[in-house]
Amino acid sequence: MNGFPWGDFALNLAAAAGAAFAVMLITFAVALAKGLHRVVDVAWGLGFAAVALVSYAISAGHGDDARRLLITVLTCLWGLRLAGHIARRGRGHGEDPRYDQLLAKAPGNRDAYALRIVYLLQGALVWLVSLPVQAANYVPGEMSWVALLGCALWIVGLFFEGVGDFQLARFRADPASKGRIMDRGLWSWTRHPNYFGDFCVWWGLFLIACDHWAALVTVVGPLVMSYLLINGSGKRILERHMQGRPGYAEYAARTSGFFPRPPGR
Fold first, then answer.
1. pLDDT at 93
2. Backbone angles phi, psi at 143, to 5 degrees
3. Whole-number Cα distances in Å, 88 to 91, 92, 109, 157, 242
4. Percent helix, strand, coil in the chain (nearest 5)?
5. Contact call for residues 45 and 130 (beta carbons, < 8 A)
6. Residue 94 is part of which domain span?
7. Residue ranges for the chain with pLDDT beneath 50
8. Handedness of CA 33, 23, 127, 46 (dihedral sign)
9. What interhelical angle do 220-230 and 235-242 show, nearest 10?
């Protein structure tokens, strides 16, 4: 089949939505039992892994098997690493102040408000951002150099994300770092190596799907993720929180805000 199977892809869209919302609803039940809504951050990566696995399973007989397996493995590796990192980072801590502030505005029942504004919204975002992953399972023909370029970009992204998180965790664990701003390693090249890594990962996954023109319509996925990382709940909110820290203004003046560049003086 040389054409893109739009009918089967539409069924995949529905199944992927079911997988994303199922992960979020299960997480909501866990959050109610624990009394902590911060567990939804762990579900973010798990939701993408669930969508990738469901899409791989129901797309059997379509697309290129090598591309299907590659996009599934890469998405699951990214999602499970992120979920594990967030789970370890949050172990033993109370509620995230972000959710306390958000739910303080609840017009009625806090939990019902959280279900709508936090869990169902994140489920919808998982479905939307993952559109390239879903489409890649149905792209006909063998992978080209464009897909290989996407795989290379994914590797760069995972390197920045994983190494950046590791360096920050080691910095925070050192008592000598108390009261200081992390400005070493990748954090001297960009103030947000982990967010830049996410950016590369999702544009890389999009390129893997781009061996057929039909997959171009899924560009909304990496565009939404880029907006979230730069102007949404990522860089913008974190920098607003950090602005009052001693030394942060000087760090920001000499360090790139997002795309890496050699550290300034």
1. 80
2. -70, 145
3. 5, 9, 30, 21, 22
4. 75, 0, 25
5. no
6. 6-254
7. 1
8. positive
9. 0
In the chain, the percentage of residues whose pLDDT exceeds 90 is: 70
Residue 259, domain member (yes or no) = no
The predicted-structure confidence for 111-140, as pLDDT tens digits, reads as follows 888 899 899 999 999 999 999 999 999 999
Residue showing tokens 């040389």 = 2
Tell whether 260 is covered by a domain: no
Burial class (CB in 10 A: 0-12, 13-18, 19+), 33: exposed
Q: Are 196 and 235 in contact (CB under 8 A)?
A: no
- Residue 36 near residue 94, CB atoms below 8 Å: yes
Coil vs helix vs strand at 18: helix
> Has residue 261 been placed in a domain?
no
The answer to the question of residue 142 being in a domain is yes
Three-class secondary structure assignment of 110-161: HHHHHHHHHHHHHHHHHHHHCHHHHHHCCCCCCCCHHHHHHHHHHHHHHHHH
Give me the pLDDT at residue 263, please. Answer: 84
pLDDT of residue 80: 97
Structure confidence at residue 92 (pLDDT)? 77
pLDDT at site 1: 44
Q: How far is Cα 137 from Cα 8, in angstroms, rounded to an integer?
A: 11
Q: How many domains does the chain have?
A: 1
Task: Give the DSSP letter of residue 209.
Answer: T
To which H or E segment does residue 248 belong? helix 248-254
pLDDT (0 to 100) of residue 195: 94
DSSP code string of 210-227: TTSGGGGGGGHHHHHHHH
Tokens of 225: 């993720």
